[in-house]
Amino acid sequence: MPSKSSPRSLPKARARAAANIRRLRTDQGLSQEQLAEAAEFHRTYVSQLERCVTNISIDGLERLAQALGVDIVELLQPPA
């Protein structure tokens, strides 16, 4: 069975995207299900993204950015 990666061993861009997706989603008062529906993803996929369990393509990142009403660059910004 593969071992789970610790947050420190994950690529920084993936961890940033996960944190930014969760922050933007909660700031907008959206549930994972609502965001998933807007981006045409399954709710469990959004959950996996926010927990850094799975990776996302650039196209998928763009769909999430559009659903959140932000530029894709904002999803990769370091925390303020």
Automatic annotation (TrEMBL):
Pfam families documented for this protein: HTH_3
SUPFAM superfamilies: lambda repressor-like DNA-binding domains
Signal peptide feature range: none
Top-level taxonomic group: Bacteria
Keywords from the named record: DNA-binding, Transcription, Transcription regulation
Gene3D superfamilies: lambda repressor-like DNA-binding domains (1.10.260.40)
UniProt entry tagged with the keyword Transcription regulation: yes
SMART domains, per the entry: HTH_XRE
InterPro entries with a match to the protein in the record: Cro/C1-type_HTH, Lambda_DNA-bd_dom_sf, TransReg_Diox_bact_type
Residues of the HTH cro/C1-type domain: 21-75
Name of the molecule in the record: Helix-turn-helix domain-containing protein
Organism whose genome encodes this protein: Rhodanobacter lycopersici
